[in-house]
Amino acid sequence: MNDALPSPARILGPAGLIPFAGLALAALLLPEWRSLALIALLAYGATIASFLGAVHWGLALHPAPGEEGAAWGRMGLGVVPSLLAWVALLLPLGPGLLALAAILLATALAETLAARRGLVPGPYLRLRWGLSLGAAACLLLGAAIA
Fold first, then answer.
1. What is the C-alpha radius of gyration for the chain, rounded to an integer number of angstroms?
2. N or C, which terminus of the chain has less Cβ within 10 Å?
């Protein structure tokens, strides 16, 4: 598996934290926009949780030699965050934001286990943990505000 992380991933990945931080800060600092900011934070978090699955579908649809047997696990990992994020959208704001933080961190943990089997590249995993921790911190701040 190629361990090089493309330049766009190093730029666009961290840029994806901007809405998390902006919405959490808006909820904290702008009481008149708090409800809208928290709803938007919940929706963005669910969108990102669903986005994470696409990585694993891509790996499953174009497996490296010898990794064909990982397709079911990869595709399962691709579906579960989306389903859980959908449930989080149905919860009240505070619990929904907490659930999304847990979903993002649990997905990173599952990817860590996959990396130990050589199924996820190390540079991707390091990027994902940084992004997951940043996003989870913003979601937890939103949950505290809610």
1. 16
2. N
**pTM of the entire predicted model:** 0.91
Comparing C-alpha atoms, which of 100, 106, 109, 104 is closest to residue 132? Answer: 104
Exposed e or buried b for every residue in 60-99, given b needs 16+ CB within 10 A? beebeeebeebeebbbebbebbbebbeebbeeebeebbbb
88, 42 contact by CB (below 8 A): yes
Tell me the one-letter amino acid at 23. L
Where does residue 28 fall: left (phi above 0), alpha (psi -120 to 50 degrees), or beta otherwise? Answer: alpha
Contact criterion met (CB below 8 Å) for 52 and 81: yes
How do residues 55-99 score in pLDDT, each as one tens digit?
888 888 888 888 888 888 888 888 999 999 999 999 999 999 999
47-3-19 Cα angle (round to 5) = 25
Nearest-10 crossing angle of helices 17-29, 7-15: 10
